[in-house]
Amino acid sequence: MNKLNSKNNIYYWSPFLVPIATPKAVVNSAKSLKYYGKNYECSIINFFGEFNSFENVLKDKNIKLINCFNKRLLNFLPKYGKLKSRFSFIIVFILSFFPLKRLISKQKPDFLIIHLITSLPLILLIFFKFKTKFILRISGLPKLGILRKFLWKKALPKVYMITCPTKSTANYIESLGIVDKEKIKTLYDPIIEINKINLQKKQNINLPFKGEKYFFTAGRLTKQKNFLFLCNSIKKIIIDIPDFKIIIAGDGEDKSKILSFIQKKNLQKNIFLIGHVENIFPYISLSQGFILTSLWEDPGFVLIEAAACRTPVFSSDCPEGPKEIIKNNYNGLLFKSNDENDLVKNFIKFKDIINSPEKKKKLILNNLILTRKFTFFNHYVKLNKILSNACN
Hints:
Layout: E1 8-13, H1 21-36, E2 40-46, H2 55-60, E3 64-67, H3 73-76, H4 82-107, E4 111-114, H5 119-127, E5 133-137, H6 146-155, E6 161-164, H7 167-175, E7 184-186, H8 194-200, E8 215-218, H9 227-240, E9 246-249, H10 255-264, E10 271-275, H11 281-286, E11 289-292, H12 301-308, E12 313-316, H13 321-325, E13 333-335, H14 340-354, H15 357-370, H16 376-391
Parallel strand pairs: 1-2, 1-4, 2-3, 4-5, 5-6, 6-7, 8-9, 8-11, 9-10, 11-12, 12-13
Helix pairs in contact: 1-16, 4-5, 5-6, 9-10, 9-14
């Protein structure tokens, strides 16, 4: 009998410490399967309560949470800083080794899709036999150190499939020669839920300054997002555009450095930090444009969300997402990553484009077309094909 005639159990594994894009991708992936598919039961492993903030959404979509430990454990784990977060990941690894093994062995889900702290399920796959098919979801371009390379060489041949959020990452994984290229698929993240975005855009917000013209950016205040670089570039921008204003939404380990820089350079009237914001869509929608200065993204959720809000985007040409998603002068403007002079020069061009109604409209429409690949439905079609092939 074809397995598709019965329900297929899909488990997601993605422990996290702080709000990032990947858990949202996990929830959206499960939602897409439940909404468009009739043959899937989806469950998310909620290791220490990290997915509790999604509880109402998941319950509404009949997506199960599998709880492992008391949610208070999260309060005791260091979240910020490279060494501290590494320590927390080690604790998670140790505590979850046997619970995850027992869960897979006992429940025997048809598929386990692994997003974060992937080393644990991959090590389990090396040492134990499971009926469950493992799907490794690459979340961001991986840095292949000695230990990860060794682990991948041992585990990836046993993985059913590897999915990547961009073609560039898929090509990179293929170039490693570790696994059969037939196992590597490009699967775009389910980011765009247009009805929800249009609803959230209507929420009232209080701007931290008088006037309405401003630019916007969002993300964790970390080295990856490169906000100190942005602040330093703004110091040059205001020479020609003294009334320039930007709102930065997010928290992270670089917050004190950024605040110190703003005060030291007297940029309090130009740069505004508003902390972590649950709903960024009103800020994006009301802004003149969205600016992304990241050193790397794969693919860059907020860049795609800005496009869905019909907001012009100005981005670094960093790997892997932005340089693949944004076609210069077609659906946005790019500048050389981590190059202040190029940012300033191209920002002037960007400002001219958004001040021209005709050019701005063309930029926005082109971006809307290219973001269709990141819809829930497109994700479902691609993922359903991967799962269905395993069940035939």
